[in-house]
Design a protein that fits this description.
Number of helices: 9
Helix content: 55-70%
Shape: globular
Number of strands: 2
Strand order of the largest sheet: 1-2
Largest sheet: 2 strands, antiparallel
CATH class: Mainly Alpha
Length: 188
């Protein structure tokens, strides 16, 4: 259980307590992670939301971005949305993905990234988030000049879709960190 700022308690489901349509989805989480992450347990309260999150995650993870670039998109959005759960989670995930710690630290602390290309990706991602997709032609040109393409411009929207689901859910539920993420706790 987690208590929201309004005092309402949102259940963190297990496979046993989840609605029937969420049970198989939580079994998939267990297969992928070895346990049911608290975020997935909360999302299970709305089976369609958990299914959408898992599908979008899979689609974005298999996009044209490499591991460093995936991390830049995810963490840029997590930090901008001030997600207490996803910033630590994606720090741990970045380690598993063998992303350089310097990238994770720069994203967590809003400092300069190691390459101009990654910085251009963060800049475009922030422009998408802050301007709700109303990006300028100059922003697009700078993104393309850094070596990215139209597909990747659109794939940022895919990553943003995933992060809206998780970040907003974590804000509402005040989702507690899983044990494996506690070492990477983060505050704005």
């Amino acid at each position: 259980m987690s208590t929201t700022q309004t005092g309402e308690t949102l259940q963190i489901h297990t496979i046993e307590t989840a609605p029937d349509n969420s049970k198989v989805l939580l079994e998939n989480s267990t297969k992928a992670y070895g346990y049911v992450p608290n975020l997935h347990g909360v999302l299970a309260g709305a089976p369609g939301l958990l299914e959408a999150y898992q599908n979008i995650h899979e689609l974005f993870a298999n996009s044209s971005f490499n591991n460093d670039e995936l991390t830049v998109v995810w963490q840029t959005i997590n930090v901008e949305h001030e997600c207490h759960y996803c910033v630590p989670a994606h720090t741990a995930i970045a380690k598993v993905m063998k992303v350089d710690d310097a990238i994770s630290e720069a994203l967590r602390n809003k400092t300069e990234l190691p390459t101009p290309r990654l910085e251009a990706l963060r800049t475009m991602t922030l422009s998408m988030v802050r301007n709700r997709g109303n990006i300028s032609k100059d922003d697009v040109q700078a993104f393309y000049s850094a070596g990215f393409n139209q597909r990747q411009l659109l794939e940022i929207i895919l990553g943003l879709s995933q992060k809206v689901i998780s970040n907003y859910t974590n804000h509402i539920a005040e989702t507690p960190l899983d044990k494996g993420f506690e070492a990477y706790s983060w505050n704005k």
